[in-house]
Amino acid sequence: MAATSIEIPLKDGEEVIEIQLDDLPDSSEILQILQQETAQLKIWNTLGREYFRQGRKEDFVKIVTASLECKGAEEQDLMNAYDMLAAFFVQEANKEKNREKKRELFTKATILYTTADKILMYDKNHLLGRAYFCLLEGDKMEQADQQFNFVLSQNTTSIPSLLGKACIAFNKKDYKNALAYYKKALRTNPRCPADVRLGMGHCFLKLGNME
């Protein structure tokens, strides 16, 4: 069962402040509590994700941006915060139609991912996020491929990596290999999103056209 609240321990004593997730206050109020009680970064991350889940994007950005200033945070939590904010900017850039705004969002994401590289460069989730960012940028296909390959060397059934490799192969018009990656992803998890079967269909169509 999903948590309905999160507890922020008070700095002095054993008491806690309980925040109800279905009734989150304005982010400025939460920020004041988090900073005042020097809360652990994982609590900031949890609250940030909840604001995002509820569609409160501005609150999400405020919380996660401020969290990057936390002192003495665990490396994993700090990298998660950088990656979470970077992924958000990538997502927004992908929807943005204005070229200048899209470039600005990509630049923000690049800075965040580059900073996270210095914390835990070879973390699997970090590499996957960076690899998909490279794919979306369009001119860094080889870099994305290397990162997917590294993750697959650690976990041969990594579905995000298999789908990334399928996408790269398809863009290179290597439809046979693209189909093989899609098939492996589907064998690994038969409940893959419908997009996987759609990708396979495109591959079959292209291979049929070539014959």
Query: Based on DSSP secondary structure assignment, what is the total number of beta strands?
Result: 2
- Beta content: under 5%
- Average pLDDT, to the nearest integer? 91
- Output the radius of gyration: 20 Å
How would you describe this protein?
This protein is mostly helical and 211 residues long. It contains ten helices and two strands. The protein has helices spanning 27-36, 41-53, 57-67, 75-95, 99-120, 124-137, 141-154, 159-171, 175-188, 194-210; strands at residues 5-9, 16-20. The chain has a two-stranded antiparallel sheet. Strand 1 and strand 2 (16-20) form a beta hairpin. Helix 2 packs antiparallel against helix 3. The longest helix has 22 residues, at 99-120.
Topology, pairings included?
Blueprint: E1 5-9, E2 16-20, H1 27-36, H2 41-53, H3 57-67, H4 75-95, H5 99-120, H6 124-137, H7 141-154, H8 159-171, H9 175-188, H10 194-210
Antiparallel strand pairs: 1-2
Summary?
The chain is built from 10 helices and 2 strands, in the order E-E-H-H-H-H-H-H-H-H-H-H. By secondary structure, it is mostly helical.
State the main characteristics:
5% strand; two-stranded antiparallel ribbon; 211 residues; 2 strands; mainly alpha
